[in-house]
Amino acid sequence: MAFNLAPVVNAEETNYRFIGIQSKNRAEWVITHLANAHQSITTVAFFDTLGPDAQKYIINQTEMTTIAVSKDYIKGLATAKISDADGKLKTLENIVVFESDISDEDKKLCEEAKLTLYTLDDLYEKGKKVGKISTMR
Question: How many structural domains does the chain have?
Answer without folding.
Answer: 1
